[in-house]
Amino acid sequence: MKQMILSALDMSCVGFLAQGVWTHPRDRSTNLNKLDYWLDYARLLERGLFDMLFIADAIGIYDVHGGSKDASVRNGVQLPMNDPSSVISGMAAVTKNLGFGITGNLLYEPPYLFARRMSTLDHLTGGRIGWNIVTGILSSGAKAMGRDFIVPHDERYEMADEYLSLMYQLWEGSWDDGAVIADRKAHLFADPAKVHVVKHQGKYFKLEAVHPCQPSPQRTPLLMQAGASGRGKQFAAENAECVFVNGVSKTQIAATVADIRSRAVEVGRDPNSILVLAGATVIVGRTEAEAREKMREYRSYADPEAVLAHASGGLGVDLSKYPLDEPLRYEETDANRTSMEMFTRSKDRTYTPRQIAEEMALSARNLVISGSVDQVVAELSEWISMTGIDGFNIARLIMPDTLEDFVNLVVPALQERGLYKTQYRAGTLREKLFGGTLPTLQAPHPAVRARRSA
Question: Exposed site from 44, 245, 347, 440, fewest CB < 10 Å?
Fold first, then answer.
């Protein structure tokens, strides 16, 4: 059995996936505006040898339910939400090995500025930064950024293709290896012949600039992506190094993993160059009875209205217009098409708003694993062996209790069984995850073609 990868999944907000559970008296997520909250978070994860903290993000708010912002504002549904990148430097300063993945929306991030921010973070973390590439699903985000409507689904990926091509030119092609000399006596910092102007004029983006940062340890940050539509999986197969998947069916996840890796082969990439992590919420106790009691306790704080407000925003459909026990019908939207398909076109069952509120109460679309230490370890192991995933994105419920339980109880049990590492590898985030000795992307990844092509 291969050793699994573990990433913590969170957002710089109060109500992340377990809507309403922030009201639990032991939850500290309302301290998200305090730097110490994040420093303690990073220290906890590094103590548990977590590979990465992945901070999700969204542009806009969940204002579809009831046609208003009110349900989300009232219940703290991913609101307030802070910039995910601002706390990275602080967390990097109190850790040595923990990686950091942040979400960046390419529809709304100017390429020049975003390339600089990621290079800066890669420098300051010593090569421990990753980028979760998203195009956004919220109409409120489009309006917030000056657009009347959200860009249609497939066109968003056309924009993503061009954006990535431009980013590769900035990160890989603007500065040659050896450009930086830093010769004080000669008064020569860098060789002008080895620093190039990137000129790009495409359908969606235009730029003429030198990348303002010298090459960072990884040059291109570790590339992550979570698109589950056919177009999204094709984009991942071409560009991503780490793919996030959601679902509660081993058969479904196994098919998704096989599809992504098959597509990677078709575009000339090694299928093993793409790691797949499944979203999971873990409730563990020293006994099965203790875990059941924790589950009961956490559920008692979940808020059905908040859950439906979150689901409505993701689907782009106002679930408040449905009677609670009426099955959802398929509606064409440019929001989360994968979720829409799952809730309306499943061969096995239908979904009503009441069922969504109950089943997504603690984890949204993530898998929930609950039980004693031995039961949790067995289930995690079975998911890896039966689906082909490489590890898990572990989402918090009560902060920090649920992650402390995982670090204190599950991690040692995984290590005893040889399922998890007992020490970090040396190197950048890319080297730690893939076990190589090269911090930058290698052929045939498309980023390599940008070197000296600018």
Answer: 347
Burial 105-142, CB ≥16 within 10 A → b, else e: bbbbbebbebbbbbbbbbbebbbbbbbbbbbbbbbbbb
- For the chain, the C-alpha Rg in angstroms (whole number) is 22
Contacts of 112 (CB under 8 A, 6+ apart): 170, 207, 209, 212
Provide DSSP, 195-234: B--EEEE-SS-EEEE--SSPPPTTSSPEEEE---SHHHHH
The first and second tokens of residue 298, run together, are 């956490």
- pLDDT band for position 386 (cuts 50, 70, 90): very high
DSSP label of 424? P
> Measured on CA atoms in the order 82, 83, 86, 91, is the torsion positive or negative?
positive
Amino acid at 452: R
- In contact, 263 and 237? CB cutoff 8 Å: yes
Q: What is the mean pLDDT of residues 158-172?
A: 97
Q: Is the peptide bond before 80 cis (omega within 30 degrees of 0)?
A: yes
Cβ atoms 279, 253 nearer than 8 A: no
Give the whole-angstrom CA distance, residue 240 versus residue 220.
Answer: 11
Contact status, residue 88 vs residue 184, Cβ threshold 8 Å = no
Place of tokens 């309306």: 344
CA nearest 320: which of 70, 68, 139, 66? 66
Please give the domain boundaries of the chain with CATH numbers for all domains: 5-294+366-450 (3.20.20.30)
| Tokens 């197969």 found at | 237
pLDDT score recorded for residue 335: 66
Measured CA angle at 67 (ends 62, 69), to 5 deg = 40
pLDDT tens digits, 121-147: 999 999 999 999 999 889 999 999 999
Which amino acid does the sequence have at 162? E
Distance separating alpha carbons of residues 403 and 419, to the nearest angstrom: 18
pLDDT digits (tens, 9 = 90+) for 9-28: 999 999 899 999 999 999 99
390-to-53, 97, 289, 363 alpha-carbon distances in Å: 16, 19, 29, 20
Exposed e or buried b per residue across 154-165, where buried means at least 16 C-beta atoms within 10 angstroms of its C-beta: eebbbbbbbbbb
pLDDT level of residue 333 (50, 70, 90 thresholds): confident
DSSP 433: H
- What integer is the mean pLDDT of 318-345? 82
